[in-house]
Every structure is written in structure tokens, then in C-alpha cells.
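Per-residue structure
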Amino acid sequence: MTIDQQLDELGKQWMEAERRGDAEALDALVVTDFTLVGPLGFVLVKDQWVSRYREGALVTHEMSWTDVTVREYGETAVAIGVLTQRASHQGASADGRFRVTQITVRDGDRRLLAGLHYSPIAAPPARP
């Protein structure tokens, strides 16, 4: 299986687990020291990220992972793509479209998420 196929499969598992709110599946997809940097700069470690679903704080209605480009560096791969979601966090809208950097590492025959970094997608600033 090529790196692109591996990351496509991991992306499908990630999206499906988020849509189902499946904390156990998400927990199984990430390394022990997984870190997420959210779109506003906050940082969540693995337990905090997974707990949002365990506690029902985050509800994902729709999520897609598109326009993905992949670079491989030995046991590590970096994918950059566009994540679009319709979701709510503690009852407030968490809808958005984000540029996401996904860092994965090889674990035997599979890939695990080591980190995610979300950035809002905005137009470039106007030139003076």
C-alpha cells in the first residue's frame, strides 16, 4: 500500500470516527503523546481531544478531508489538506473550513496520528 493510500485510509477512519463521535475509535487512531493545535491557537493533548466526544461537548454532523497533499520522511508523513466541518461545541456552532496539517507516524503496517494543526482559511492580505 502506498503512503497516499495509507493516509487516505487513515483519513476515512478519522472522519468517520469524528462523525460518529466515537471516542474509542479516535483514541485508537492516535499516538500516546498526540497533540492538536486548534484554529484559535489552543492546544489539546490526546485525553483532552478524545474527551470532547466522551463528554458530549463536541458533536460533529458533517466532516470532509479534501485537497490532500502528502510528503513522506522515513517513518513520518506530513499531509496538508482542507477540513470542512459542520459541528457544535457545547451547543455553539463550530462550523468551519480549515487548512489542516496532519502528522502521522508508522506503527507496524498502519499509520497513527501524531499531531493535527488547524488554521482558518482566509484570503491573503491586500497589498499596499
User: Anything to note?
Assistant: The helical segments are 3-20, 23-28, 46-54. The chain is about 25% helix and 50% strand. The CA atoms of residues 78 and 103 lie 5 Å apart. Residues 3-20 form the longest helix (18 residues).
